[in-house]
Amino acid sequence: MFAQDFAIYGAERRGAPVTAFVRLSDSPILERGYIFNPGYVLVTEPSLLFDPTVKPLEGMEEGSVLFVNSSKEVRIIPSRRVRLLQRDITGLALKHIGRDVLSAAMGAVACKLSGLISIRSVIESVEEELAELGLEQDAIEKNVQLAKECYFTVESTGLRSTSHMPPHRVVDVQYLGEKGVPDLLSTGNSILRKTGSWRVFTPIVRNELCTACGICYTSCPEGCISLDERGYPAIDYDHCKGCMVCATECPRKAISVEREAPWS
Ligand code: SF4
Ligand code: SF4
User: Fold this and answer.
1) Where does the 4Fe-4S ferredoxin-type domain lie (predicted)?
2) Which atom of ligand 1 is nearest to the CA of 249?
3) Ligand with smallest separation from the Cα of 242
4) Ligand 2 atom with least separation from CA of 217
5) 170 falls within a domain
6) 161 found inside a domain
7) pTM
8) Are 143 and 209 members of one domain?
9) For ligand 2, atom 2, which residue shows the shortest CA distance?
10) Cα separation of 197 and 67, whole Å?
11) pLDDT digits (tens, 9 = 90+) for 106-153
12) Which of 31, 56, 113, 247 has the fewest beta carbons closer than 10 A?
């Protein structure tokens, strides 16, 4: 088959949402734009289901498959024509490699869902890609084991073909002043953008251990920590991205790391 893949990175920082696309076809692929009507949508973090800039559910059509990585029941009602599957892929990643790095895992899930790609090809791809990145053999082997478990934990849904070309979309930018550039008013460009929705792990300050030294306050790369009138830290969870720099830097280990629970 012919294949094409590309990604939109948006904010250039670790933990920020990435939207990535793959096209497969029996014939050469001439279309270059977004995939507006995907056969499959894989969501690596349930909070992204409602992200106003990612909009992963948009464009899903009858027969398309929505796979969500979640440790808890996904309480959304997609169109009844969309097939919803979910597994705790982050839990498997933590088990095999000790980190929520999901590339090999979600790739294996996608391959299995499509029914097109064998486990042998998945393993060869993971080994090849990670070796090219310079990973140690031990880390590669852990990722292979993760990919294998992910592959066998989901069922194949069979290939779903979307063949029609999408309508062209026009973005109407606004010029409110005399400037030569448009004004950016969308929530994706201001404090109204709740970047905390990207978080997988949540830092929790345990006041009984905290000495109010303020180190976490100065360490947070996002400026998400403020100090109350007594000098104790308060975390702005609307914008905390879950990088855990604060927990690492805290000399008292007063910040615990909790798995995010978006559905509770
Ligand atoms: S995890 Fe800690 S350091 Fe990272 S963004 Fe959140 S509050 Fe800041
Ligand atoms: S670094 Fe740790 S001890 Fe210091 S203020 Fe932050 S939570 Fe408290």
Assistant:
1) 201-230, 231-260
2) 3
3) 1
4) 6
5) no
6) no
7) 0.69
8) no
9) 250
10) 18
11) 999 999 998 989 999 999 999 999 999 999 999 999 999 999 999 999
12) 31
Q: How far is the CA of 240 from the centre of ligand 1 (A)?
A: 5
Q: What is the pLDDT of residues 230-242, one digit of tens each?
A: 999 999 998 898 8
Considering the domain architecture, whether residues 141 and 200 belong to the same structural domain is answered as: no
Do residues 22 and 107 both lie within one domain? Answer: yes
Give the number of domains in the chain: 2
**Going by DSSP bridges, is the β-strand pair 19-25/2-8 parallel, antiparallel, or unpaired?**
antiparallel
Cα distances from 111 to residues 22, 115, 147, 148, in angstroms, run 11, 7, 10, 11
Instruction: Select from 208, 209, 216 the residue to mutate for testing ligand 2; criterion: most ligand atoms less than 8 Å from CB.
Output: 216
Q: Are residues 13 and 130 in the same domain?
A: yes
Ligand 1 atom closest to Cα of residue 247? 2
31 & 94 share domain: yes
Distance between Cα 103 and ligand 1 center (Å): 23
- 45-104 pLDDT tens trace: 888 887 777 788 888 888 889 999 999 888 776 666 788 899 999 999 999 999 889 999
Return the structure tokens found at 42. 């894989």
How many CA atoms lie less than 13 Å away from 193 in the CB half-sphere? Answer: 17
Q: Whose CA is nearest to atom 8 of ligand 2?
A: 210
Tokens 């069922």, located at residue:
155
